[in-house]
């Protein structure tokens, strides 16, 4: 607290003489021992941005870029870039060196893994704290990452380029300095308790009050800095979730005033002395709700400190690792609980894990696009402010999408994320099509494939794909701030998916086909006026579009969608209505019929034209029918490829040359396997068989 008071006093003094708070005061380089020391360096401070307009780039400090090789190896065996378990050499100086690369992608904010001093090696779990989430001192930069000055330099450089710094913070746990063996007895919480030998490197120690971590010491026990509990065994048990150790990591007792004071003091420090603009909060659901209200909203809390530095909208994005099952919202309900209430607020926002899971299942797993439609509707309905959600596709704790799908799947997911409400979050390596979830970006760092290459290629296909979409998002506020309406979805499986973004006079349409074959988007109601001209802003996978793309009567739109495609359109004035083949009809009654056998079809059309009979939107299996000179056509609707049981289907008549179609005609099939005839054996054959066996 003494250091923080010095900081505040300096800031007031600086203001009084007309200095800009964001400038750093440097220590004296004179050798006169009588000269008083210069004031402690103050952080770089800028006003909060409108977070709706930001794009976040998330990076792991150790695995991003090595800017200072002198700090790589601290001499305790913790550094080995050949091992996925140990430090690789990335640091804060390396991040600063690559700001232009990050900004060139289109990102406006950098979220880093925790830069704080970590447990370097856990002998109990045979793993290292290179990732930053196993703290030993929350008020010190880890020696592998640099020092306070290098962190301040990063903040200052980002702010100079109009960018923002987001720090990952952990309030639930530290590293693994104690553990339990045997059967745990809540009535005797020190039974089986053990301090882990060698958990700290030589010469290291925990600061107060974290050093009070020996359950068998009565003073430490009574201080209750930690929950004296073993590792979580049942994640459905709320008591274990809130008070037991996650992955055996020492669980802080956040109901103890001394712990709350230490955590608030620690994280105020980074705002004040560095200039951090927002927090990503780790493992949120393992801490009680009351803590977050106090941590952020108390008079000595995070928001009050941020406001003193001019940050009136200090964002917090909570990590609550919960998904929802299809067409349900249990994940959303868990996330929303940690936003608190109007009377007792908690976090400002959360990372959108339910949407991430659904996007992966739809784009890489071929699930029905209606599942994504449901998720997005609930996102807009349930969250108090869906425009400040952190939307993401992959992160450092899960398999990459490319390990489950292909580049087109990833591009469709990116296309969607960058055109939806919410703050897009891009994880390092996504822009280079990484498949290893914690691979280093720099040559010499750990990679699953063992390659020693730099991966900062701003000419790569994926980098430029993201770059283009990010620029479109920045240029078109309708994509970051507009309303969202789902226009088309497929309940049966992969296929068409479309939505509309609307903001004042701006209109945008996003249309995708998640299927591996072309599909027909038939007479989709766009919500736009008839004759609205549509301009293509971006596309994926080769559309052949009319030169003059215009909505038809009642604002409908019919398009043939290539496999694994995406299309971003904006309204661009008015044009002539597209032609309509008014002669095209189906005269055979089909609507709402139940078919159990093939059905002959007939109808009319323009003589000499070709009509496609498209079932369930599947263009590859469509039947081409030539209209005779008399304007009549005939065909057969076959049921042989339909699934057994009762199924819903739709038939469209589509003139591909003209781009004209009839509205979908809905029907059902009701099919069963044929009865198996009774098997009658010839008595003579049976006797011959018995004789052969004898």
Q: What can you tell me about this protein's structure?
A:
Helix content is 24%, strand content 22%. The chain has 694 residues and is an alpha/beta fold. A hairpin with a 7-residue loop joins strand 15 and strand 16 (496-503). The model is unreliable at 1-39 (pLDDT under 50).
Q: What characteristics describe this protein?
A:
eight-stranded parallel sheet, 694 residues, six-stranded mixed sheet, alpha/beta, 17 helices, elongated
Topology:
Layout: H1 2-16, E1 56-59, H2 61-64, H3 92-97, H4 99-105, E2 109-112, E3 116-118, E4 121-122, E5 127-128, E6 135-141, H5 148-160, E7 164-169, E8 178-180, E9 193-195, H6 218-223, H7 238-243, H8 257-273, E10 278-281, H9 289-297, H10 302-308, E11 315-318, H11 330-337, E12 349-350, H12 353-363, H13 369-382, E13 390-392, H14 407-417, E14 423-427, H15 461-475, H16 478-481, E15 483-488, E16 496-503, E17 506-513, E18 519-525, E19 532-540, E20 556-561, E21 565-574, E22 585-586, E23 594-595, E24 599-604, E25 610-615, E26 623-626, E27 632-637, E28 645-655, E29 660-661, E30 665-671, H17 683-693
Parallel strand pairs: 1-2, 1-14, 2-7, 7-10, 10-11, 11-12, 13-14, 23-30
Antiparallel strand pairs: 3-6, 4-5, 8-9, 15-16, 16-17, 17-21, 18-20, 19-21, 22-24, 24-27, 25-26, 25-28, 28-29, 28-30
């Amino acid at each position: 607290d003494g250091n923080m008071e010095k900081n505040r006093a300096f800031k007031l003094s600086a203001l009084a003489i007309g200095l800009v708070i964001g400038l750093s005061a440097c220590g004296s380089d004179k050798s006169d021992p009588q000269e008083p020391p210069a004031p402690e360096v103050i952080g770089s401070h800028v006003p909060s941005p409108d977070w709706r307009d930001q794009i976040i780039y998330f990076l792991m400090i150790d695995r991003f870029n090595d800017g200072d090789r002198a700090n790589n190896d601290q001499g305790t065996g913790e550094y080995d870039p050949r091992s996925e378990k140990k430090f690789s050499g990335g640091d804060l100086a390396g991040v600063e060196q690559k700001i232009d690369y990050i900004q060139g992608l289109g990102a406006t904010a950098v979220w880093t893994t925790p830069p704080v001093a970590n447990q370097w090696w856990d002998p109990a779990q045979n793993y290292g704290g290179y990732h930053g989430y196993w703290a030993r001192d929350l008020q010190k930069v880890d020696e592998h990452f640099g020092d306070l000055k290098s962190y301040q330099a990063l903040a200052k450089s980002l702010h100079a380029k109009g960018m923002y710094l987001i720090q990952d913070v952990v309030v639930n746990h530290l590293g693994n300095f104690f553990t339990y063996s045997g059967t745990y007895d809540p009535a005797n919480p020190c039974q089986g308790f053990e301090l882990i030998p060698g958990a700290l490197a030589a010469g290291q120690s925990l600061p107060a009050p974290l050093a009070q971590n020996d359950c068998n010491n009565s003073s430490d026990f009574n201080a209750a800095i930690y929950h004296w509990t073993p590792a979580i065994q049942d994640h459905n048990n709320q008591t274990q979730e809130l008070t037991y150790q996650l992955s055996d990591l020492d669980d802080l007792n956040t109901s103890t005033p001394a712990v709350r004071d230490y955590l608030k003091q620690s994280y105020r420090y980074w705002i004040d002395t560095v200039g951090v603009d927002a927090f990503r909060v780790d493992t949120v659901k393992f801490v009680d709700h009351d803590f977050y209200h106090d941590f952020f909203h108390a008079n000595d809390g995070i928001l009050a400190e941020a406001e003193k530095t001019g940050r009136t909208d200090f964002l917090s994005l909570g990590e609550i690792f919960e998904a929802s099952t299809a067409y349900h919202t249990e994940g959303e309900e868990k996330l929303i609980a940690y936003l608190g209430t109007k009377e007792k607020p908690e976090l400002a926002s959360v990372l959108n894990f339910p949407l991430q899971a659904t996007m992966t299942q739809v784009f890489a797993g071929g699930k029905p696009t209606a599942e994504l439609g449901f998720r997005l509707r609930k996102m807009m309905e349930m969250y108090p402010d869906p425009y400040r959600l952190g939307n993401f596709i992959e992160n450092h704790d899960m398999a990459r999408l490319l390990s489950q799908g292909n580049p087109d799947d990833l591009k469709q997911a990116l296309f969607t994320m960058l055109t939806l409400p919410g703050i897009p979050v891009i994880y390092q390596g996504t822009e280079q099509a990484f498949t290893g979830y914690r691979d280093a970006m720099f040559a010499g760092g750990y990679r699953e494939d063992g390659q020693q290459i730099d991966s900062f290629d701003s000419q790569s296909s994926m980098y430029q794909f993201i770059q283009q979409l990010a620029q479109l998002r920045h240029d078109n506020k309708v994509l970051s701030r507009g309303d969202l309406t789902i226009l088309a979805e497929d309940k049966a499986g992969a296929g068409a998916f479309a939505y509309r973004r609307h903001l004042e006079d701006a209109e945008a349409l996003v249309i995708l086909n998640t299927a591996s074959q072309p599909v027909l988007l038939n007479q989709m109601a766009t919500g736009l006026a008839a004759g609205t001209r549509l301009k293509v802003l971006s596309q994926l996978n080769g559309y052949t579009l009319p030169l003059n793309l215009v909505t038809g009567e009642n604002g409908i739109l019919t398009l043939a969608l290539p496999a694994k495609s995406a299309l971003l359109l904006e309204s661009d004035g008015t044009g002539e209505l597209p032609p309509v083949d008014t002669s095209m009809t189906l005269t055979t009654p089909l609507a709402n019929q139940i078919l159990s056998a093939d059905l002959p079809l007939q109808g009319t059309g323009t003589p000499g034209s070709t009509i496609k009979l498209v079932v369930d939107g599947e263009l590859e299996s469509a039947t081409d029918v030539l209209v005779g000179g008399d304007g009549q056509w005939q065909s057969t609707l076959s049921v042989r490829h339909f699934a057994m049981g009762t199924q819903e289907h739709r038939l469209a008549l589509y003139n591909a040359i003209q781009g004209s179609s009839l509205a979908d005609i809905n029907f059902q099939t009701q099919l069963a396997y044929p009865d198996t005839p009774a098997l009658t054996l010839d008595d003579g054959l049976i006797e011959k068989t018995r004789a052969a066996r004898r």
